[in-house]
Amino acid sequence: MIRKCTKKDFGCIYSIVNQAARAYEGVIPPDRYHQPYMPAEELEQEMRRMTFYGWLEDGELVGVMGLEPVKDVTLIRHAYILPAWQRKGIGTKLLKYCEGLVATKRLLVGTWADVGWAIDFYEKHGFRLMPDKDELLKTYWDIPGRQVDTSVVLGLEVKGFILNKVSS
User: Fold this and answer.
1) What pLDDT does residue 103 have?
2) What total of structural domains would you count in the chain?
3) Is residue 95 in a domain?
4) Does residue 35 fall inside a structural domain?
5) CATH number reported for the structural domain that contains residue 97 in this entry
6) Segment 100-137, tens digit of pLDDT
7) CA 108, CA 87: separation in Å to the nearest integer?
8) Which residues of the chain carry a pLDDT beneath 70?
9) Which of 73, 74, 110, 147 is the most buried (most CB within 10 A)?
10) If we measure between CA atoms, which residue out of 142, 111, 103 comes closest to residue 129?
């Protein structure tokens, strides 16, 4: 089951993000990886800017995906599934659900250039690597230059975007 997350889900979201992000250790540049991967203060700021949706198993959140409308696009932010629940279709279900909420014509996601599994996941669902990733990252994200250098952006044109709305 998917539901919109609330402030009460903060602890679960924090745990999901930081447990799942351990997969980045030794993969992304060492100067970009730290523990916790997302400090509590950063997550609090992110939750004010975007809406998280979560997948529940037996009433517990096991995966999350955030949507953030920015200018004329919608960003997928912080898509993470607890390691024990990965490769069970939860990411696909969250992605399809979130695509149905998008109120813009274009959906973008940024990820680390060295995280092939994430790139493969989005490409499998119709996203394409964007050749203008530096410009996109500087326009739609607020990230350090080093992260721009080590990231990619994938994009998807959203069908039926006029009929959809992003929940806040």
Assistant:
1) 85
2) 1
3) yes
4) yes
5) 3.40.630.30
6) 999 889 999 999 999 999 999 999 999 999 999 999 99
7) 22
8) 159-168
9) 74
10) 111
Question: What's the domain range around 94?
Answer: 2-163
120 burial via Cβ count (<10 Å: 0-12, 13-18, 19+): exposed
Query: How high is the pLDDT of residue 165?
Result: 39
Whole-number Å distance between alpha carbons of 81 and 21: 9
Residue recorded with tokens 């250098």 = 149
**CB under 8 Å to 82, separation ≥6 — which residues?**
16, 19, 20, 62, 63
pTM (2 d.p.): 0.91
CA count, 13 A, side-chain hemisphere, 160: 6
Residue 168 placed within a domain: no
Question: Is residue 41 assigned to a domain?
Answer: yes
